[in-house]
Amino acid sequence: MWLINRLQGLKELILCGCSWSSVSALCTASCSYLRLLDIRWVEDVKDSHLRELVSPPTDTRPGQNDNRGRLQNVRELRLAGLDVMDASLRLLVRHVPQLAMLDLSHCPHVGDQSVNLLTAANSQLRDSLAEINLSGCSRLTDQCLPLFKRCPSIARIDLRSCKLITAEGCQRFTEDAPPPGSFRCSEDKLILRNS
I need a surface site. Which of 58, 87, 92, 189 has the fewest CB within 10 A? Predict the structure, then answer.
């Protein structure tokens, strides 16, 4: 906490594999310059911890009604292996509006409804999201694929090791996504935009 509060200009922070007690210092800090946060495989993280991290700080001073989250300028967020629920994703949509790269790989609760939340009409991420890693998310099905057509900037969708996503579903997405021929499946369930 002492160090984080003295690094006001911090742009990248990688805490992969640390304990939540180390990461929790971010809940009291203002990291307005932070662009990349990597908290993959952080031990003992619960959905309530993620909500605390993403939500705007509570400030009881009169006239202070700032609804901006602590991670408002983060462009790349890596949450692989965490217990992410749809409630936390709703907060990401509201409070991390510039997010371009999101890693939710191996998150056991991420499913089709999660993708719907991220790409919905009222989602601030709909236009900014360029890359999403959902590899190893066992609840995803082919039903989530058409939802990515809502994201005009999407260039990389990683669905490798998603047991319920089929190669045929990925192929259908690449054929149906406008404009024709704009996407390809380069590896097993890795969808890339043609440059």
Answer: 58
Domain count, the chain: 1
Q: What is the DSSP string of 81-101?
A: TS---HHHHHHHHHH-TT--E
- Look at residue 116 and tell me if it is in a domain: yes
How many whole angstroms separate alpha carbon 36 and alpha carbon 11?
A: 7
Domain that holds residue 156: 4-55+68-193
Please say if the pLDDT value at position 100 is more than 50: yes
Mean pLDDT of 128-154: 97
Q: Is 91 left (phi over 0), alpha (psi -120 to 50) or beta?
A: alpha
At 111, which CATH number? Answer: 3.80.10.10
Strands 12-14 and 76-78: unpaired
Q: Is this structure's pTM higher than 0.85?
A: yes
User: Tokens at residue 3, please?
Assistant: 């160090």
d(CA 47, CA 166): 29
Checking if the pLDDT of 38 tops 80, the result is: yes
Q: What is the pLDDT of residue 60?
A: 45
With respect to residue 181, please indicate whether it lies within any of the assigned structural domains: yes
